[in-house]
């Protein structure tokens, strides 16, 4: 009897959920891209770590630094943006932070992959690590492009409002032509 009365009207509260995808900061497609970024960065890092000897170790160490940094910080960013934790950190400019971080890591991964590809001993682990480095670079670039397509450029300061819902952009309010209270005579 009680289940017949309460079941149709009882629904879970979506605000009580700790996992928030899609949200204002992260949609489902970019969430999936970020998960694959984390995985590819981790695989590149692990493959680089199993290299037993190197001819010129500076390119290996730079690739290690970039792949480890990309793995750890992208995982942290993914956890923060897909849960309610981002509201407790005190940062209000998440879109700008996400955009800058993704762009910087894409450039660093590209540089590290090119340098490591040009200066390694040619072992199988090194070759596969370079391939995963380039794959991660492509994913970070795709993430950046998807960000701009869905949210626009986060640092736009031209003062012009953007069009919403396909309609024309609405400019700033014009001053009134007629005063509400005429001046006393």
Automatic annotation (TrEMBL):
UniProt xrefs under Pfam families: MARVEL
- Keyword annotations: Membrane, Transmembrane, Transmembrane helix
Q: What is its main location?
A: membrane
Transmembrane residue ranges: 29-47, 59-85, 97-116, 128-148
**Topological type in the membrane:** Multi-pass membrane protein
**What InterPro entries is this protein classified in?**
Marvel (IPR008253), MARVEL-CKLF_proteins (IPR050578)
List the GO cellular component terms: membrane
Q: Where is the MARVEL domain?
A: 25-152
Biased-composition ranges for Basic and acidic residues? 176-185
Q: Does the keyword Transmembrane apply?
A: yes
Look up keyword Magnesium and say if it applies.
Answer: no
Q: Where is it localised?
A: Membrane
Q: Where is this region: Disordered?
A: 155-185
PANTHER family, per database record: CKLF-LIKE MARVEL TRANSMEMBRANE DOMAIN-CONTAINING PROTEIN 6, MARVEL-CONTAINING POTENTIAL LIPID RAFT-ASSOCIATED PROTEIN
Q: What is this protein called?
A: CKLF-like MARVEL transmembrane domain containing 6
Gene name per UniProt: LOC115567329
